[in-house]
From TrEMBL, chain A:
<keyword id="KW-0547">Nucleotide-binding</keyword>
<dbReference type="GO" id="GO:0005524">
    <property type="term" value="F:ATP binding"/>
</dbReference>
<protein>
    <submittedName>
        <fullName>Fe-S cluster assembly ATP-binding protein</fullName>
    </submittedName>
</protein>
<keyword id="KW-0067">ATP-binding</keyword>
<dbReference type="InterPro" id="IPR010230">
    <property type="entry name" value="FeS-cluster_ATPase_SufC"/>
</dbReference>
<feature type="domain" description="ABC transporter">
    <location>
        <begin position="2"/>
        <end position="248"/>
    </location>
</feature>
<dbReference type="InterPro" id="IPR017871">
    <property type="entry name" value="ABC_transporter-like_CS"/>
</dbReference>
<dbReference type="InterPro" id="IPR003593">
    <property type="entry name" value="AAA+_ATPase"/>
</dbReference>
<dbReference type="InterPro" id="IPR027417">
    <property type="entry name" value="P-loop_NTPase"/>
</dbReference>
Automatic annotation (TrEMBL), chain B:
<dbReference type="Pfam" id="PF01458">
    <property type="entry name" value="SUFBD_core"/>
</dbReference>
<feature type="domain" description="SUF system FeS cluster assembly SufBD core">
    <location>
        <begin position="159"/>
        <end position="381"/>
    </location>
</feature>
<dbReference type="InterPro" id="IPR037284">
    <property type="entry name" value="SUF_FeS_clus_asmbl_SufBD_sf"/>
</dbReference>
<dbReference type="InterPro" id="IPR055346">
    <property type="entry name" value="Fe-S_cluster_assembly_SufBD"/>
</dbReference>
<dbReference type="InterPro" id="IPR000825">
    <property type="entry name" value="SUF_FeS_clus_asmbl_SufBD_core"/>
</dbReference>
<protein>
    <submittedName>
        <fullName>Fe-S cluster assembly protein SufD</fullName>
    </submittedName>
</protein>
<dbReference type="GO" id="GO:0016226">
    <property type="term" value="P:iron-sulfur cluster assembly"/>
</dbReference>
Length: 256, 411
């Protein structure tokens, strides 16, 4: 599904190199988790994959279903099936959540040559999906993320995911700022979307999210690349022992 | 220019007084404090710069049940207008009537509005207006009145003056649409008695080459409500002045505007000059002005809240913001507060910024194409101003016009 090969990325306006030969393959239908200390490049990777400005790819490739992502505009990547759940979902005053969802969904359908949904069809769909995420009608009517609590914002991200039905979902620290109940609700939403043709890449600092969203594969990332790959037990090991041992084995020290 | 004494049948003393006011203050120049950012030369000139009428656009408010009054280049068009009769409203024309209720009122609000800031074009208007409507509302008007200003002649230079009086508890929605002429001078005096409610929605344009200087003078008695929203697309030069005096207690005045200009269509200069005076208890005022500028367009805002001694419990708010879509455009703002009462709440703010890159990326990452995403963010930016329109159907129509403009002005 997602294949990252020897990816090197630097900041556009500075000499700072962030990704240093990253390799990662996420198979169709699998859930991969990436853990790593602060500054390891996890969020940068998610931004580069989804096409945010400000980064320069100096080497390597990233393909989704065999198609090169790095040549596409952000909206083309979305239409190709990539979805990034933001660590900090953006507030957009004056644009209703429903308008936003419908615009996004129909833009993607149009880009794929599919028929756009009518207002009625859309409404039915969004109500159905919102219900399972415990998102009430009021939240749908309000401007995008404005006045939403941390939990509501993350649930809103998952609602977008449910509506847009991407093939490859990247969750960037979706657990940050969530209490236990909100995390469970978000995790349930994600689990409901697990499917044989849909892959996930879950970026997190903490093992606890992975208690709820059970990964098939866990990667440890530091210094702009994947250091170690294993099963779910790798996350537990990090939770208990920290990153020091793994970093030391690769000649790295912990971030200051 | 029309002679002050022969322009209409009535209001001779008022017109004479206005001519004297104008004579005393003279026409404005760049050295005048309130004209530093807007060059009045083309407004001062004896003749207007020629301006072609813009392409006819889809008629506004077509689905709405309203009373239409049409002026073509400032000349009343009886054939295109509806019959001027409306339940709860007396409507006559300035050019043909001088009803008793308007005696001593015509020009009065304009004269009051000359202090402390001079408004020479308004005095000129009172003295020389060739037509306009005299509207007296005694109940809730059965439907909105829509003044439709058609521009046909390349050299038209209309001067229209409307006088509107809402009696106690009366209510009126007034719509104004169209560019009116090559150079348009308009004054509107609005006198609101106790508990009267006045809603004003105006769409200027869409001509690229037109020029306009417009004035609203409003006076509010106890518990009166005044709400005005203006949408401006283009125009080489537009100066919209508003002078609102809240004399009564518990009055509410909201003045809002959204202007969108693309200098690549021709020059674009839009000026909002607003003065709100609190002179009663517990008054609430809001000024919400938003400008979207690109291609070398210029926007200016001069806004003031004056709280007079004794106007306690005043709640005054003013915001002026611009969204600059490129590096060539410019926004100049002068927000002012002058407060002489000690128990008031007043705030003002002014910002200038570009499209928020993070929000743009967020929308695009959801599959919204870049230009559509920018359009959504422009609407998002304008939302506070548009929300000042209470009527949902009118609001929808305004938003539709905004979307049209955005579709025509993609980068």
């Amino acid at each position: 599904m997602l294949e990252i090969k020897n990816l090197h990325v630097k900041l556009q306006d500075e000499d700072k190199v962030i990704l240093k030969g990253m390799n990662l393959t996420v198979e169709t239908g699998k859930v991969h988790a990436i853990m790593g200390p602060n500054g390891s490049g996890k969020s940068t990777m998610s931004y580069v994959l989804s096409g945010r400005d400000g980064y320069e790819v100096t080497e390597g490739s990233a393909t989704l279903g065999g198609k090169e992502l790095l040549d596409m505009e952000p909206e083309e990547r979305a239409a190709a099936g990539l979805f990034l759940a933001f660590q900090y979902p953006v507030e957009i005053p004056g644009v209703g959540n429903m308008t936003f969802l419908r615009t996004a969904l129909n833009a993607q359908r149009k880009a794929r040559g599919e028929e756009e949904l009518s207002a009625g069809e859309f409404l039915k769909l969004v109500r159905e999906k919102a219900k399972t995420l415990k998102i009430d009608a009021d939240m749908l009517k309000r401007p995008v993320n404005v006045g939403f609590s941390g939990g509501e914002k993350k649930r809103n991200e998952i609602l977008q995911m449910a509506m847009l039905e991407p093939k490859m979902c990247i969750l960037d620290e979706t657990d940050s700022g969530l209490d236990v109940d909100a995390m469970r609700l978000v995790a349930d939403g994600v689990n409901a979307l697990r499917a044989p043709d849909r892959s996930f890449l879950v970026i997190t600092h903490y093992q606890r999210l992975l208690d709820h969203i059970k990964p098939d594969v866990v990667h440890i990332m530091a210094d702009g690349r994947i250091l170690q790959t294993g099963g779910p037990e790798l996350a537990l090991e990090v939770e208990n022992n920290g990153y020091a041992e793994i970093l030391a084995a690769h000649g790295l020290t912990e971030a200051k | 220019m029309a002679d002050a004494l022969t322009a209409g049948p009535g209001f001779v003393p008022e017109r004479k007084a206005a001519a004297e006011r104008l004579g005393a203050m003279g026409l404005p120049g760049r050295r005048d404090e309130y004209w530093r950012w807007t060059d009045p030369a083309t407004l001062n000139a004896p003749d207007p710069k020629p301006a072609q009428a813009g392409e006819a656009e889809a008629p506004l408010f077509d689905a709405l049940d309203r009373l239409k009054v049409v002026f073509v280049d400032g000349v009343f068009d009886a054939g295109a207008s509806d019959d001027l009769s409306l339940a709860g409203v007396e409507i006559t024309r300035l050019a043909t009537s001088a009803p008793g209720w308007a005696e001593g009122l015509y020009g009065t609000l304009e004269a009051t509005g000359q202090v402390p800031v001079k408004r020479p074009f308004a005095a000129l208007n009172t003295a020389q207006a060739t037509d306009g409507l005299l509207i007296r509302v005694t109940a809730a008007a059965a439907k909105p009145i829509n003044l439709i200003y058609v521009h046909k002649s390349e050299t038209s230079d209309p001067i229209l003056h409307h006088l509107i009086r809402l009696e106690e508890g009366a209510e009126l929605t007034l719509l104004e649409t169209g560019p009116a002429g090559a150079r348009f001078n308009k004054a509107m005096e609005v006198d609101l008695a106790k508990g009267a409610r006045f809603h004003h929605i105006r769409i200027q344009g869409p001509d690229q080459e037109r020029r306009a200087v417009t004035h609203i003078f409003a006076r509010l008695a106890d518990a009166a409500l005044f709400k005005s929203f203006t949408l401006t697309f283009n125009g080489v030069l537009t100066r919209n002045e508003a002078f609102v005096e809240m004399l009564g207690d518990d009055a509410m005045a909201h003045v809002a505007g959204a202007a969108l200009g693309d200098g690549r269509d021709g020059a674009f200069h839009h000026d909002d000059t607003v003065f709100v005076t609190h002179d009663g208890l517990r008054g609430e005022s809001r000024q919400v002005f938003k400008k979207v500028l690109k291609g070398g367009a210029i926007g200016t805002f001069q806004g003031k809240i004056l709280v007079k001694p004794g106007a306690q419990k005043t709640d005054g708010y003013q915001i002026s913001q611009s969204l600059l879509l490129d590096d060539d455009s410019q926004f100049l703002a002068k927000p002012e507060l002058e407060i002489y009462a000690d128990d008031v709440k007043c705030s003002h703010g002014s910002t200038t910024g570009a499209i928020d890159e993070t929000a743009l990326f967020y929308l695009r990452s959801r599959g919204v194409p870049e230009e559509d995403a920018k359009g959504l963010l422009v609407l998002s930016f304008l939302a506070d101003a548009i929300d000042e329109i209470e009527d949902a159907a009118l609001k929808e129509e305004i938003v539709a016009r905004l979307e049209d403009w955005l579709a025509r002005h993609r980068s």
